[in-house]
Amino acid sequence: MKKYFVFHLIILCLFLYTTNSQAKEQVHHADSVPTYVEPAKIEEEKETTQEYATGLILLEYLKNPFFNHNDKILVDYRKTGLPTIKRILQFMNRVANKIENRLMGKQTQEEREKVIHYQQSKYVFDLTNGIFLGDCSWWTSMVIKNTFPNFYEKKMMPLSETTMLLKQGKANKSLTLRAYVWYKIFNGIIRAKGKSKPFKEINGWVKTTTPEEISQKLIANGIKGKKLKCYTKNYKKRYDFFKFMQTTEWQQDLKLVASNWYVFKKVKNWRAGDLMTVYYKWSKHKIENAIPQSTGHVMMIASNPKKFLELSQTYYTFFVMDSAGSPKDFDKLRIKDDSKGIKDSGIGLGIIKVVVDGDGYVKDIIYRGKKRFRGSSTLAGRLVGAVD
């Protein structure tokens, strides 16, 4: 009897200790990650384990064809209460698992580039065979296109550069929503809703600088032939798109998607499944001298940001899933191994550090020990109302 009593006393003590430890962890989590409450109209789905009964597996698959109970949790989709975001995160997790499995045993640059590779043309998105070749805009566009195809084609694509080019007779197929276009859409939604001020335009000079002026500057700087034609054409697309955004048609199409997105300027409100778009400050000097530069970068946030305080600096760290020229920190998919001559590009899943200013807006984005995208403007959008 005495042994029986002692045994149960030990069990009780262990239970109280475990409960207390979990409570402390939850308090620490609440302190380190700002709390954001999802809209009350969206019923929270409660999932606490990775294991599913057979019936629930079938139900989950019927709700989302990208759910696969054999997949590892590389992108955690279990904590969101938003059906749209859950579908997006499960799709991201499916792609990440496919890439990880396809890269297994691939020991050369050439072999790995047949699975993932960063390229700005001749895109390939083949989930069945595990081939993913494209840039950042292509990747995020594929996320929305594959999870909500009707919404993407009918409501998002009318806002794209491609639609403008189709109207001009200069494109013959649907392409992608470019990084800076995502930013313009999100900033436009903030303006349309009128609840907070949109970010100021950082490339306002484009509105008043014609393609003819840029072409003359290029010629004066010794640029000619195909290079002159290429840089003039690329600038004209940006200039024309700035004009296109001012049309009644574009503004009406923007209003049609405004209710489908929540847009956040402050990093503390970002969550896994949000689309993060970085709008670069364009150098007029580089354009006039035919020096290559990108217009922006776009990523899918793959984990909830964790907040850190360091001296007078506040920053957040979180996983992003993007297509880029090199790995991020602690990348789960891309590697850089100088001894084997491997430097992966294309879709990866790694950590970035985002430093915020006094208002909570992005000040610096840091990975691999360097500050990136200086002078840029950054927003995140959450798809909350897409219905296919």
Can you describe this structure?
This protein is of the alpha+beta class. It has one domain (about 65-385). Helix content is about 40%, strand content about 20%. The protein has helices at about 1-30, 55-65, 85-105, 110-115, 135-145, 150-155, 160-165, 180-195, 210-220, 225-245, 250-260, 285-290; strands at about 115, 125, 130-135, 260-265, 275-280, 295-300, 305-310, 315-325, 335, 340-345, 345-355, 360-365, 370, 375-385. The strands form 3 sheets. Strands 4, 5, 6, 7, 8, 11, 12, 13 and 14 form a 9-stranded antiparallel β-sheet that branches. Strands 1-3-2 form a 3-stranded mixed β-sheet, with no helix packed on it. Helix 5 packs across helix 6. The relative contact order is 0.13.
Strand residue content? 15-25%
Structural class: alpha+beta
**Tally of distinct domains:** 1
Mean pLDDT: 86
Helix content: 25-40%
Q: Total number of β-strand segments?
A: 14
Main beta sheet: 9 strands, antiparallel
Shape: globular
Rg on CA atoms, Å = 24 Å
| H and E order | HHHHEEEHHHHHHHEEHEEEEEEEEE
Q: Tally the helices: what do you get?
A: 12
Query: In angstroms, what separates the terminal alpha carbons?
Result: 65 Å
Quick recap of the structure?
With 388 residues, the chain is an alpha+beta fold. 40% of the residues lie in helices and 18% in strands.
Looking at this protein, list some descriptive labels.
single chain; alpha+beta; 388 residues; 14 strands; nine-stranded antiparallel β-sheet; disordered N terminus; globular; three-stranded mixed β-sheet; 12 helices; 40% helix
